[in-house]
Write a structure and sequence with these properties.
Length: 286
């Protein structure tokens, strides 16, 4: 898993940065031959750049890889330039190059560890932001989108879709469940209703809890015949029981017309549901 993560991080490295790392790894050996203004000694510090870059993108493993790679190259070049030319190995120049190797090695590892810590903190912040978003947009009891999220979704649908329908759902007998068995049983019932509604959620269907025992479903671009069938299916699955108490639902439907606002459509769906309540409950009204 760590290997695949590092490979993915490597792939995300900008190609121009990767090319620059390669150039700055290879070039010091050639530039070191220019014996002016200490360039022979200082150019090897260019190896720090690829070490820092790989550490930043790939963390500790990247820093270790870069440190090993550039220092093997650096020491190979030194041995090539000196050993193959029969130079004396133990001298001040060797000490300098070994020092460069040690510095780049530990700098790369240090940046890698720092990068991992920063990545860990970033992931923690992302997780926290996700939790805050869920708290802001979802109902904590049922997990369904809350009223705020519903209003945003409805506003977008009215702007983007030609036809939008609302199903305003109110449970029949919910107060009796709370009064008879307590709020814990009521909460369990609300979770069950949410689970049943989630079965109907698709690309064109959005279910939300408005509050209390009120739920609402947004249906986009569905003809009236299919809409009534969907409402009947929802009404059927909401025939529930809490011990010996029968629970049902009253559903009011409103279909958008040209010039409908968010408020007017919601009000018509609410009125349709209220009419169902007045005429016997456990039914669908338009």
């Amino acid at each position: 898993m760590v290997l695949s993560k590092n490979i993915e991080s490597f792939r995300k490295m900008p190609k121009i940065i990767l090319l620059l790392c390669i150039v700055l790894t290879i070039s010091p050996g050639f530039l070191a031959r220019l014996d002016i203004y200490y360039i022979a000694d200082m150019v090897w510090f260019l190896l720090l750049f690829p070490c820092f870059i790989f550490s930043y993108y790939m963390g500790f493993a990247g820093g270790l890889f870069a440190a090993l790679t550039v220092n093997l190259y650096h020491l190979f070049w030194f041995l090539y330039e000196n050993y193959l030319r029969m130079s004396e190995l133990v001298n001040a120049e060797l000490s300098l190059h070994v020092g460069v190797a040690i510095v780049t090695f530990f700098c790369a590892i240090g940046v890698g560890l720092l990068s991992e810590k920063l990545t860990e903190k970033q992931m923690q912040l992302q997780s926290l932001n996700q939790k805050l978003k869920e708290l802001a947009m979802y109902d904590s009891l049922t997990g369904l989108p809350n009223r705020h999220y519903f209003l945003e979704k409805l506003s977008e649908a009215l702007q983007d879709k030609e036809s939008v329908a609302l199903m305003f759902i109110d449970l029949d007998g919910f107060k009796r469940v709370n009064d008879t068995f307590g709020h814990e049983a009521g909460d369990h019932l609300l979770k069950e209703v949410a689970a049943q509604l989630n079965r109907f959620v698709k690309d064109s269907t959005f279910a939300s809890r408005l509050g209390g025992d009120e739920f609402i479903v947004i249906v986009e671009e569905m003809d009236k015949k299919e809409l009534m069938k969907l409402a009947a299916d929802i009404l059927r699955v909401l025939q529930l029981k809490v011990d010996d108490l029968a629970i049902s639902a009253s559903i009011g439907i409103a279909i958008s017309t040209q010039g409908d606002s968010l408020t007017s459509l919601l009000k018509r769906a609410d009125s349709a549901m209220y009419q169902v309540k007045l005429t016997g409950k456990n039914a669908v009204g338009v």
